[in-house]
Each structure stands twice: as C-alpha cells, then as structure tokens.
Write a structure and sequence with these properties.
Elements (H helix, E strand, L loop, with lengths): L19 H4 L1 H27 L7 H27 L6 H29 L3 H30 L23 H26 L6 H26 L20 H8 L3 H10 L32
Helix pairs in contact: 2-3, 2-4, 2-7, 2-8, 3-4, 3-5, 3-9, 4-5, 4-7, 5-6
Keywords: Membrane, Transmembrane, Transmembrane helix
InterPro entries: Elsinochrome_Biosynth-Asso (IPR053018)
C-alpha cells in the first residue's frame, strides 16, 4: 500500500536524515504567515460586512484573500500526495508534520470560504471545481489519519518508514488510549467540517449567516493555531523532534526554504494589477440572484480600490 512493499522494515536505524522540504524553517514559516494573513483578512472583511453592510465590497482584500485560499488548497493536496508517494521512506515524524500542515491548509481555506462564499458562487463551474478540490483534500487527510492510527496500533518504531505500519504484526503495548481517541476525533472532525463547508458553499438561503461566519472563523482559527503549535513544537527547526535525526538540515536555509517564502508574494501581483486598473473584478453575488447552475456575467464591472 503506497509503496510499503519497497520499505525496509527489518532494520531499525538509530537515526534518520532530516527533510527540509517538509519540516524546514522556511516551509513552516511560509505556511504560518500565509495562514495568519488569510485569517486576519477574513476577520477584517467579516467585521466590515457586519458593521457596515451597505459599504462597497473591498475588491483588493478579497482578491488577495482568494489568492491565498487557492494557494492553501493546492499546497495541502500537493504536500499530502508527495508524502503518500514517499511512504516507503518517510518516518512517522515527517508524516505527522505533513498531516499538521494539511490541517493548517484546510483550516485556512475554510476560513476564506466563510468570507468569499458569494465570490465563489459567481461561476458554478469554479464553485464545483473548488468542491472537488475540497473532497480530494479531505480524502487525503483521512488516509493520513488512518496511517497515523495504524502506526500507533502497531507500535511502529519512530525510525522506521510509515509504510511499515502495514507490515508489522505486533501491537503497541505502551501507547495510551488518548492517542487513538485523539487521532479518531481529528479524522471525524475533518469529515464534519467538510460537510458543513459543503452545505455553506452550495446553500441558496442561509439563515444566521453572520453568526455562522463568526463562529466558523473562530473555530478555524483555533484549528490553525493548534496545528501550527503542534508542528512547531515537534519540528527540529523550532522545537524538539520525537525521533533522532542524523543532521541539522531542517534548521538551515536552502533554496527550497527561500522559495517557499517568495511564494507569499504571488497573490500580491494580482493586487498590484487591480490597483493599476489592469484587471477588473466583478463584485460578489448575493443569494438567489441567479439560477443555481447559471454563470452571472457582469457587463461593466467596476474596480473598487478600497483597501
């Protein structure tokens, strides 16, 4: 399963090499900064819409937030896919960090969904494409949870590849029930959040709209903070890993680390183009303005340079 056949499960090494592409300082910092900016922007837009509902929508902030939203959902799917392909070589330490980063990306995307739901409804094709990406992200996250749970059940040594969790026959004797319950709760919570996000994205008549936004944003911020804290405390770059690493590679700044930080500036390019008048962005649509599967065309979209 996912390359477990080629995994070496007979020799338990004393230490494993680091992987800066997963747990490097630049990777963790870029994920943290992206999540923080997205949640702050979401909160500012929700507060503005609540206090000044008649005020024109802020196109610049919405466009920037949309860029970070797309970036997070793609990064979450990408990093989980790579992790599964490398299941025959990744140890539980790196596998768990990938899971935490995927939870962070999911929470960030859902926080932006709360704010930009009317923007996503402008085109039903793009809306359903986002729905498919959300489902793929959920499926990968559940697979990761099953891997983590299986490694705990089998008592997998922390220096063996995560793929060996499906090969070992013994069961753990020292892992407490809290580990099992916590992992199952996270998997179930992901499914519940996905269901609520799907309803929120497609529902035509939403009751208690503002309350759902506020409560949902607080919940997603709490999930993001928890995932960030767990990843930082466990990482070599900022905390204490639970496995012996043979080098200090996750603390050094390589090309990949700098590239992760530079990716933060990609959504800013679109914002500059909007401010220069080179891109016209249509305002968000309201509920029941159009049929469910009809794309709304704006003849003369206005660019609102309101930050």
């Amino acid at each position: 399963m996912f390359g477990t056949v080629s995994a070496n499960c007979t020799v338990v090494p004393d230490a494993v090499p680091s992987d800066a592409g997963i747990a490097g300082a630049g990777v963790l910092l870029s994920s943290t900064i992206t999540a923080s900016l997205a949640i702050i922007l979401s909160a500012s837009l929700i507060i503005q819409d609540s206090l000044r509902p008649a005020q024109s929508p802020s196109v610049i902030r919405r466009k920037l937030l949309s860029g970070y939203s797309d970036q997070q959902i793609i990064v979450g799917i990408g990093i989980q896919s790579v992790g599964l392909v490398k299941a025959a070589s990744l140890v539980p330490y790196h596998f768990f960090l990938i899971w935490m980063l995927s939870l962070l990306s999911m929470a960030t995307h859902n926080a932006t969904l709360l704010t930009l739901v009317h923007d996503f409804r402008r085109d039903w094709v793009l809306r359903w494409l986002r729905q498919v990406l959300m489902f793929v992200n959920l499926g990968l996250s559940c697979v990761y949870g099953v891997f983590v749970l299986q490694s705990k059940i089998r008592g997998l040594p922390n220096t063996l590849p995560i793929g060996c969790a499906w090969v070992l026959d013994k069961e753990a004797s020292s892992v407490g029930g809290l580990d099992y319950v916590g992992t199952i709760v996270v998997i179930a919570g992901n499914c519940v959040v996905f269901g609520l996000a799907t309803w929120y994205l497609h529902s035509r008549q939403q009751r208690f709209y503002r309350a759902i936004q506020m409560i949902g944003l607080v919940l997603m911020a709490a999930i993001a903070i928890g995932a960030i804290a767990r990843a930082y405390l466990l990482s070599q770059a900022f905390g204490s890993p639970d496995v012996a690493l043979s080098d200090q590679g996750e603390k050094s700044w390589s090309f990949g680390q700098l590239l992760s930080m530079l990716m933060l500036f990609l959504p800013v390019v679109s914002v500059i183009e909007i401010m220069r008048g080179e891109i016209a962005v249509a305002p968000p649509v309201e509920d029941d303005e159009k049929p469910f599967f009809e794309t709304r065309l704006v003849d003369n979209p206005r660019v609102i340079n309101q930050v």
